[in-house]
Amino acid sequence: MNARTELDSPRDLMVTASSETSISLIWTKASGPIDHYRITFTPSSGIASEITVPKDRTSYTLTDLEPGAEYIISITAERGRQQSLESTVDAFTGFRPISHLHFSHVTSSSVNITWSDPSPPADRLILNYSPRDEEEETMEVSLDATKRHAVLMGLQPATEYIVNLVAVHGTVTSEPIMGSITTGIDPPKDITISNVTKDSVMVSWSPPVASFDYYRVSYRPTQVGRLDSSVVPNTVTEFTITKLYPATEYEISLNSVRGREESERICTLVHTAMDNPVDLTATNITPTEALLQWKAPVSEVENYVIVLTHFAVAGETILVDGDSEEFQLVDLLPRTHYTVTMYAASGPLTSGTISTNFSTLLDAPANLTASEVTRQSALISWQPPRAETENYILTYKSTDGSRKELIVDAEDTWIRLEGLSESTDYTVLLQAAQDTERSNITSTAFTTGERSPAALMPSPPLRGVWLLGCLC
Q: Residue range 219-226: average pLDDT?
């Protein structure tokens, strides 16, 4: 056995050119003293040949080779009986055919194709493709010789395509390398969203071209949440997704399925609506105030928008902080019917509207006073309420238990009480009346003067007053 490890090997054996019957080689010179190089070249037929090359050479052209054959070529350095390790390269006479086509990233309308280098380098590449059994639809693409991949686009879904690639060098064309690939099924298209509520959305679409078994609708919150999906029959083109969270952004995807094959997905985003506040009520109603109370929605609320209207007057808009669940209305008009509408808002989202109605109470007369008090009379005056009034109910009673109730015209704002008892404490009660409604009671008190020995003159009758009752 020859010793091989004592000599340095020639390195970087490369093919620089080839023809139908020759292959040109170069290599890096071995370091150290040698006698010569030995080149061994073996065609695919298996019959090896050898030649020796002077030690000062770093290139050589093998001639008289078999045309269109693959060769395994090796070179060693020799000195006496010593031989270095081999440096080996594969080469072809004529064209090295493209060994195979590799298909990847297959969709319903496109496919990526890659291939190996031809040798020697081609002048250009020609790629042809067509649906099987439809050669009249063959498409041809001329590619730069440096290209090692191509993307075919605009293909028909679920269709088998025959693809062949040839290398062209001058006037010589290599044998085509052929392959076939079937495109995937196409997805549905034109996805749209409608009928958005706080916990559901309707998804609609147009069907794909290729036949398929069913649709798969998938959905999940874009922030945090699990992926849910539903199987939808291939005969429908709309589906309502339910049991969603309110005021939440969802990613919805849709694809078609045939057996174990799935189309690519089409996706869209949608915000569910905010849920409504509930149980809006008005309590603690007075002539000028009312307390609004409600229950907050599940959604996070930035603020509430309250619109307060009465009669045909344009509504007053009130913004309330989103953390609140009540609001005190003030400065209302007495005995007025109000409508309150309300909705929640968060960023661009708004809830549905809820409403309630209430009526403020009839306001009482104000500044009830007693003046010009004598032994048997007193002048009672007041300011009228803001609300429309039908009449007043005036009651005055003394500490001895006597009591009288009078109906006073709505136009009057005073009345003189006469025939009173001397040196007596009186309390006057006054309220406004409209239909069956009564205002709150306002009151005042006074004391008549002491009896004098002078004779008493008869009292004149009261004007504009009806006596309802007398308790003595």
A: 89
Q: Are 153 and 110 in contact (CB under 8 A)?
A: yes
Do 9 and 86 meet the contact criterion of CB atoms below 8 Å apart?
yes
The answer, yes or no, to whether residue 47 has pLDDT greater than 90, is: no
75's CB contacts (< 8 A; 6+ apart) are 10, 13, 25, 27, 37, 38, 39, 40, 86, 87, 88
Chain-wide mean pLDDT for the chain? 88
Please state the rounded mean pLDDT for residues 109-125.
Answer: 82
Reported as a pLDDT band with limits 50, 70 and 90, residue 470 is very low
Cβ atoms of 268 and 191 within 8 Å: the answer is yes
Residue-wise pLDDT tens digits, 397-410: 998 888 999 999 99
State the pTM of this model. Answer: 0.56
In this structure, the strands spanning 349-350 and 354-359 are: unpaired
For residue 164, how many C-alpha atoms fall within 13 Å in the half-sphere facing its CB?
A: 11
C-alpha–C-alpha distance, residues 348 and 151, integer Å: 43
Concatenated DSSP letters of 174-231: PPPEEEEEEPPPPPPEEEEEE---SS-EEEEEE--SS--SEEEEEEEESSS---EEEE
AA letter at 355: S
Relative to beta strand 326-329, strand 124-131 is unpaired
The C-alpha atoms of residue 137 and residue 160 are separated, in whole angstroms, by 13
Contacts of 394 (CB under 8 A, 6+ apart): 380, 405, 406, 407, 408, 415, 428, 429, 430
- DSSP string over 121-189: PPSEEEEEEEETT-GGG-EEEEEETT--EEEEESPPTT-EEEEEEEEEETTEEPPPEEEEEEPPPPPPE
| Res. 452 pLDDT band, cuts 50 70 90 | low
345 CB contacts (<8 Å, ≥6 apart)? 274, 301, 302, 303, 304, 305, 351
